[in-house]
Amino acid sequence: MARWFDCPYLGGTVELTDEREAHIRLKHEATLDDGGRRVEGALAEPFQVRRSRTDDSARLFIRWYDDLQDGKFVIAVVIDDRSRGGRPGLATAYVTDQPRRGVLEWERA
Description:
Blueprint: E1 3-7, E2 12-16, H1 18-27, H2 37-44, E3 48-51, E4 58-65, E5 72-80, E6 88-96, E7 103-107
């Protein structure tokens, strides 16, 4: 069963399908090992939002967590298909030391 996360930046919710959740758990388990709290936080209160350089419909929601592996960023990648009649969906989420990808679209002041 799909889960939904609030995303004020997009003005609605983001869907996490069972298939995408299975992918994230297999490849990037640390982002969901807390029940999805870190992904939820990245979508609800990001530090930065970046637009993908290769897919105009993809945005990277970035948030820092002091309590994750001695301090790391969580990146939640959302595909926003609303312009094509779809809805925003979480493609993947991962942990990184530095968010280097994407073009800066918004940053918390």
